[in-house]
Amino acid sequence: MAMPVAGVQMDVAFQQTAENLERMSAWLRQTAAAGARLTVFPECALSGYCFDSLAEAAPYAQTIPGPATEQMRAVCAEVGGYAIFGLLEAAGAAIFNAAVLVGPAGVIGSYRKVHLPWLGIDMFTTPGDRPFAVSQAGELRVGMNICYDAAFPEAARSLALLGADLIALPTNWPPGAECTAASVINARALENAVYFLAVNRVGVERGFEFIGRSKIVDPSGQTLAESSGRGEEAIYATIDPAKSRRKHIIRVPGKHEIDRFADRRPEMYGLLTEKSSGTFFTAEGDKKSDDRKRGS
Asked: Is 140 helix (H, G, I), strand (E, B) or coil?
């Protein structure tokens, strides 16, 4: 059964969790009224992103389940829909950059960002420590990645192999990510034959201006909807799970057929599972170690 979905490209008030939660609740009511059954919000939509230390961020992290997921559950129950939003997850002594899927009955699934750039709160959070997973939102199988994860094709491929119909990508794209927004999202959808919903924030936070460019892409790599600029807005599309589950594409019977999964050669991909050496080469050709430290 087809499901209407929405992405909310919104500004986020730094360190104002109550305000952000109220604004997400209002947006969720608005998108549900427009027909969406699943609404996706940006990365760190609850807290903001540009923290200077883990100690500064800690007061704005929440558990999953927690107060924010409970409020969103109540709104989901009110409108009969589902929501995905980004937050900082407090888990013991660790803080993760996380996304959570909430429905009328509560938390359905959550994800901890696996790939962390040297930027904002990701300089201090703990890398995701759970396997990729797919959750059920009504009839829709949903997988979650966050922002920089989209730069690693293995992340989306893992979710597709687990049966995702839709990959939701809450993100905080700053300047420099224009090519990701323009091309990478479409490529991830095409190469995995899945729907892809990337939702960026807008506004300025501690000198970083976020670029918007949110979009929804279908399994053929075609853009179904995209934001019109760097302002707040909601974008909408309808997801047909039958299209994302049909991996065998017949273009000319007996002459031009592809199968994104059956045509894979996993036995040739062993290099992808080898651990990085942690070294890189400079422009001058010198070999150096990556000594960046996280968690301070």
From this structure: strand
Closest CA to 17 of 86, 118, 107: 86
pLDDT at 1: 82
Query: What pTM was computed for the model?
Result: 0.93
- Give domain 3-289's CATH number out of 3.60.110.10, 2.60.120.280, 3.40.50.920, 3.50.50.60: 3.60.110.10
Which member of 44, 50, 76, 147 is catalytic?
147
Q: Is 275 part of the annotated catalytic residue set?
A: no
Is the CB of residue 69 less than 8 Å from the CB of residue 107? yes
Question: 209 catalytic, yes or no?
Answer: no
Question: Could you tell me what percent of the chain has a pLDDT over 70?
Answer: 93
The angle that helices 153-161 and 185-192 make with each other, rounded to 10 degrees, is 40
Q: What ranges do the domains of the chain cover?
A: 3-289
Name the catalytic one among 44, 113, 205, 215.
113
- Residue 147 annotated among the catalytic residues of the structure: yes
Rounded CA-CA distance 209/201 in Å is 9
C-alpha–C-alpha distance, residues 216 and 166, integer Å: 10
